[in-house]
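Hi L.,

You mentioned the student needs an example of a multi-chain input paired with its predicted structure. This one should do, with 342 residues in total across all chains.
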Amino acid sequence: MTRLPHDDQPLIQFLKQNRPIPPTTPNLVEKQLMQWVVKERRVSSSKPILVRWLISGAIATAGLVTWQLWKSSPSTQQMATQPEEIESFVIDSWNGTNEQLSYATTETQLENAWLMLEESYSTSKNKTNRQ
Amino acid sequence: MTGEGDQLVIADNQTGISVREACLGHRTLILQSQKGDCIAFQQLYRRYQPRVRATLYQLCGSEMLDDLLQEVFFRVWRGLPKLRQPSYFSTWLYRICWNVATDGRRQFAKRQLERELPTTEGEDTPTLDEQLSRPQDTPDLMQLHYQDLVQRALDSLSLEHRAVLVLHDLEDLPQKEIGQILQIPTGTVKSRLYYARNAIRQYLQQQGVIL
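Structure written out for the whole complex:
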């Protein structure tokens, strides 16, 4: 790798000057190639129609399969039980609300009773003081 | 389709460069060919055919040259819709050229083995006496002799070394692009080039060429 690039210049020049020249291309080569190309294009141009049919068919099949699966899958059962769950949830939450309400009413009752007691105590105390 | 077929015939009958061919740029040709324009592809073929043919000839010799050339451009036609960047067309084309050349050589070697020709090496490569007996008194014959020498010198190299030398020194491609074509690091391109130049120099000097 120590050789400097300019050392190779005479060799490169020699190779370029005397590079092997390929034999001339027969016209037949181009004609054959273009015939193949046109043929290939015809085949490929007819392909999209086939591909379109295949794709639409595949989409339809996939749709049918998905629908069948959806119909027979356990998720449908879950959907069916969902109203029951909702119902039980509503009942639970309703009960919970009732409990809270009952707790609140008892609490207010207690408070009222306490206030009454306190009032009665204060009035009795005032009476004794007057006496 | 028939319209384009007619146009193709017209293009075939034309000996010079058509107006359309002159107008269409390199990038446009590639883009048109990608869309399936056969005439644009034909022009693309005409533009690149000499370089591809020369490269194939330097890599594989004259054996199956036309078949290999057709194979290259047929693969190009098929692969063009997948080419995303038209600016890489040249590198991509050389890559196909390299693949076809390696495949072609493999097939050729296989055929040679199958045939098991009784020819000896002496028949393919002329002896020193034959070389000396070549008429070298006129410049044209001298040129032919040197061309033959270069061809044989290239043949003496392995395909990997030959490819690097041909693409770099004869086709003037940069080392980075050669690395992309052959799918090897640039360092490997450099080392192969160094080895190939030394080997070919040695061969030519042995044949009496003063460099």
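You could point out the following to them. Chain B touches chain A through 46 residues (CB under 8 Å). The two ends of chain B are 57 Å apart (CA to CA).

Best wishes,
N.
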